[in-house]
Amino acid sequence: MPENAPELLIANEHPSYDVDEAALERLARHVLAAEGVRWQYVGIILTDHATVLELNRTYLNHDYHTDVLSFDLSDEATPERAGEVYVDLDTAAERHAEFGASFEEEVRRYVVHGLLHLAGHDDATPAERAALRALEDRYLAALSAE
Q1: Do residues 109 and 143 lie in contact, with contact meaning Cβ atoms separated by under 8 Å?
Q2: What kind and span of H or E run contains 21?
Q3: Helix (H) or strand (E) holding 68
Q4: How far apart are CA 18 and CA 75, in angstroms?
């Protein structure tokens, strides 16, 4: 691991689903390095519907399920960025077939999506969504090529 690599935590808190955490770590480190952002800490929490819904209600005032949430935890006093990504494994399990992806591929897409939000990418407009999706595809393809 490079000396300036961020602290990266991957925590699977889901009671039922297992995920290849080593593959997620390789993917996350690739995305974090490629985005050109100085990172201090990134947490990736793999969790369930109830947790993501509660976070969505509490911190974003959204009363609906979603696949992934990102929270910027950066301290403005330091140049490095920090944040956490919460991935709903229940949603990945329910929706992966709809997109022609495996469960693991869907989880990886959610992780990349969340990391890109932490890096400052937005998806509020159709053009931003298309650009974010293209970046997701590029990073996922890079992992597949390894």
Answers
A1: no
A2: helix 21-34
A3: strand 68-72
A4: 32
> In this structure, are strands 81-88 and 68-72 parallel, antiparallel, or unpaired?
antiparallel
Q: Which residues contact 113 (CB under 8 A, 6 or more apart)?
A: 67, 68, 132, 136
Split at pLDDT 50, 70, 90, the class of 131 is very high
What distances in angstroms separate CA 97 from CA 36, 86, 89, 92, one per listed residue?
A: 33, 21, 14, 9
Q: How many residues appear in the chain?
A: 146
Strands 7-12 and 39-47, sheet pairing: parallel
Q: Could you give the strand order of the β-sheet that contains 68-72, starting from the edge strand earlier in sequence?
A: 7-12, 39-47, 81-88, 68-72
CB 108 within 8 A of CB 23: yes
- Using left for φ > 0, alpha for ψ between -120 and 50, and beta otherwise, residue 72 falls in beta
Q: What is the pLDDT of residues 66-90, one digit of tens each?
A: 999 999 999 988 889 999 999 999 9
**HSE-CB for 60 with a 13 A CA cutoff:** 15
- The pTM (predicted TM-score) of the whole model is 0.93
Identify the pLDDT of residue 6: 84
